[in-house]
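User: Structure please.
Assistant: Input sequence and predicted structure:
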Amino acid sequence: MKYKEAEILVIEALKEGLDSSSDEARVVAINKADENTRLFGGGGLLDSMGVVILLSDLEDKLDDEYDVILSLASDSTMSKTRSPFRNVKSLAKYIIAAVEEEQK
């Protein structure tokens, strides 16, 4: 998996997670998302439940589109000092590393 594929995967999952209850500012921010878009933490688009839902959606997409089954929300990942969920870029890089590790 290449970086751009992972970045697009994350952004598509964000957009697919939008629903009619999403506030207008959040919808605009997600539709303009790029690799620097903050996902979690100060000023992030998602709360902790939103991150869990996003990770679940990404796991489903990885299974459906890449035939890769893995868990993105492990205990060790969730407790890291520097979260891989802080922005689109860090999450895309984390997904690439997780997929590579799974395919070994």
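The chain has one domain: 3-102.
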